[in-house]
Amino acid sequence: MSSPQTFHLTRYFSILSFLLIVIAGSAVGLAVQHQTSRQVTDMAHRHNEAMSQVFVNELWPHFSAFVAGSSGRSATELRAAAKTLGLQAKTSALMMNSDIIKVKVYNRDGLTVFSTDASQIGENKRDNPGFIGALAAHATSALTHRNQFDSFEGARADVDVLASYVPIRDGGQIPGVVELYQDVTPFIQNLHQVLLKVMLVGAVVMFLLYLMQLMVVRYAQNILRRQEAALLESNRELDARVEDRTYELAAINSQLEDEVLERRGAEARLVHLAHHDTLTGLPNRLQFTEQLQRSVSKAERNRHQLAVLFIDLDRFKDINDTLGHAVGDELLIEVARRLTGQLRNGDLLARLGGDEFVCILENIQSPQDASRVADKLTARIAEPLSIRDHDLGISASIGISLYPADGVDAGNLVRAADTAMYQAKKHGRNAYHFYTPEMTQYAQERAQLERLLRHAIENNELDVHYQIKMAVTDSTSPSGVEALARWNSPELGSVSPVLFIPVAEETGFIIALGEWVLRTACRQMAAWRASGVDVPCISVNLSVRQLEHADIVEVVRSALDESGLPPDALELEITESVIMNVGDAIGALKRLRELGVRLAVDDFGTGYSSLAYLTLLPIKTLKIDRSFVTGIGDNRGDESIIQAVIGMARSLGLSTVAEGVETEQQLAFLRHAGCDEIQGYFFGKPQPPDEFLDSWCEAESADKHLRQLRQGSHLRLAPVQ
Ligand code: C2E
Ligand code: MG
Ligand code: MG
Question: Is 626 helix (H, G, I), strand (E, B) or coil?
């Protein structure tokens, strides 16, 4: 900051006021001098006019004729005439003791006809302005200083003289002009003295005034200086404070900027979080929905096709439940990585939640483009994978919907892809499926099934039917029974378990349904036994969901306790593919086995179980799947499998049951192959309890008859309530 320019107030004031005082003093002095000298002159002028009147009054009679006759006369003549007339003496006498020191008289021609200084007689003043004025009746005076002056009383030095031309008035005429010289030296000297005093006093007063003003000014300047210093000091302080404050503000500002940056970062993170899945880092449902809407609009504008792929991992839940969430999470991350690696830049992959992924393929030329991508994705996912020392074989089912064929908005496209995905799962998993409109109908029917099934137990719509099993040796004898659930829906009629069991499994309803079947079957068995009908063993189907459920052992135990059925009279059938997919199947089965119940592998041959694995299971029976039995007589391959299975079971100490036996030929083949038990329509369809009992007794008595051990009457028992 530049220092302010110093203003020398005292200096400028002293110079200026000195000059002003000098100028004002001089002006006042001059004015006073002018005024007083005018007053003196006026006074002397009036005095001269009075004296001229005295002169006229006293001496004009002596002069009038002389003046009147003066024209044309010479100076000498005039001097002589004056002398003769004694004008000099008379004039001197009259003026003696007055201030008049010289008198001159002019005739109208301007000729000096008389002068107390005789040497001046004869001079002409015709052109003198004073004379001319007097002749025109105006008396005029002029003040002059003379170093040397000849008065009628003798020569004088340094005199101030007021010479007045005064008209001589004689009866209205001006016959001549008198010029009176008055010695005003005393007045002038006096005047000068007075002036000097006045000037002195004025100068002293002015000086004092100047001094006082100077003091006031210096005092004021000191105050101003102090104030200026204080102002400068406060300015400095202010500057320092402003600087400090500026620093503070700069610091606050940078802090604020940091905070703003941090907040922006946090907002960006929030936006990212809102749009991304935290586990895999992929876009989430929200971003997927927004993107799909944009993609659909773009495809609509550009008249392109696009595909939505709905990807669902097969049996992910089993892995998650058996190996733990940490493994499940790592698996999902790996799947996300694998899927991302197979996609183009423009494709969007998102995770909807759980093991569901979706993918948008923009601008595809034909459905084949989508199927090529689906092929790549399923192949890549199915590659071997090891997480935390667990070798996992995973696969995915993919549903594909196409814009515009399967839907023209995001919601319909996703629903269609989802439906198609279910279809892919239904058709054996590890596959993809394109959406077809029929799927919607299927999905709708399935949804209806799901809705109605939920209340089937409480509405007493469920039944258990029983199908007889026969032991085959040389003869055939009834050996057991399988309990099979039946649903008679008031809306749908009789619904096959093939339809409703998968739905019950997906919805979790199977837990309640399975338990109900188990308890009903156990009670029924106990009732038959109590009535004296010896059904050795009842088989009940167990779903994977039941097996996974922690309290399955307790449920089975309580069903046995409640019915009083001995554990070895109960066999639990577990589908082979289910056993293969339950992580801790061995543990669960072992606990069940410890209860004393028997365990059978249902639908054997469909699940590709390894022999080594089978030896680990605490099972007693293998149930050869109906699909192989159907092939007997037609398919050598099926027959070979049946023979191999029976041979293998024998070597492992397991019994075998063939299901779905409908013909004599099948029975003969199986008997010959060494199958232990037969189940199928050939011996009886699944029946309600009372009908079943008839069949059972019939079979038993036929057997007895054959063995010639016929015993009395048929027993007929009431069905269990
Ligand atoms: P599954 O356990 O293998 O039962 C045998 C199925 O084959 C039964 O079908 C039975 O009626 C049928 N069947 C038996 N003999 C023949 C034959 O000679 N020819 C033909 N064509 N079929 C025969 P169903 O009752 O429709 O049951 C189908 C499947 O539903 C069962 O297969 C079982 O997996 C499941 N299921 C039935 N009831 C239950 C249940 O209470 N709990 C569970 N978890 N699953 C059940
Ligand atoms: Mg079964
Ligand atoms: Mg079966």
Answer: helix
Total residue length of the chain: 721
> What is the rounded distance in angstroms from the CA atom of residue 670 to the CA atom of residue 661?
9
DSSP, collapsed to helix, strand or coil, labels residue 433 as strand
> Residues 6 or more apart from 167 whose CB is under 8 A from it?
134, 135, 136, 137, 138, 139, 174, 177
- The Cα–Cα gap between 552 and 543 comes to 11
Q: Which of 623, 626, 695 to mutate to test the pocket of ligand 1 (most atoms within 8 A of CB)?
A: 626
Instruction: Tell me the CA–centroid distance for residue 602 and ligand 2, in Å.
Output: 6
Rounded to whole angstroms, how far apart are CA atoms 501 and 485? 9
Yes or no: say if 224 and 8 are a contact pair by the CB < 8 Å rule.
Answer: no
Confidence check: pLDDT of 639 > 90:
yes
Above 80 in pLDDT, residue 428? Answer: no
Contact 452 CB / ligand 1 (< 6 Å)? no
CB 325 within 8 A of CB 591: no
Tell me the pLDDT tens digit for each residue of 20-58: 878 887 888 788 778 877 887 888 888 888 888 888 888
Which pTM does this prediction carry? 0.53
Residue 709 pLDDT: 44
SS3 category, 509? coil
Q: Which region, left, alpha or beta, applies to residue 371 given φ > 0 means left and ψ of -120 to 50 means alpha?
A: alpha
For residue 626, the tally of other CB atoms under 10 A from its CB is 18
- Whether 539 is in the pocket of ligand 1, judged by its Cβ within 6 Å, is no
pLDDT band per the 50, 70, 90 thresholds, residue 213: confident
Atom number of ligand 1 nearest to Cα 686:
11
- The pLDDT, as a whole number, for residue 677 is 97
567 Cβ neighbours under 8 A, 6+ residues apart? 560, 595, 596, 597
For 635, the token pair is: 């398919």
* pLDDT surpasses 80 at 452: yes
Question: With 90 as the cut, is the pLDDT of residue 486 above it?
Answer: yes
Predicted confidence band of residue 220 (pLDDT cuts 50, 70, 90): confident
Gap from CA of 486 to ligand 1 centroid (Å): 10
**What are the chain's domains?**
11-189 (3.30.450.20), 285-436 (3.30.70.270), 452-712 (3.20.20.450)
Q: Alpha helices, DSSP H only, in 276-398? A: 285-302, 316-323, 325-341, 367-381
Cα gap 437→439, rounded to integer Å: 5
Tokens (6 digits) for 197: 């005093």
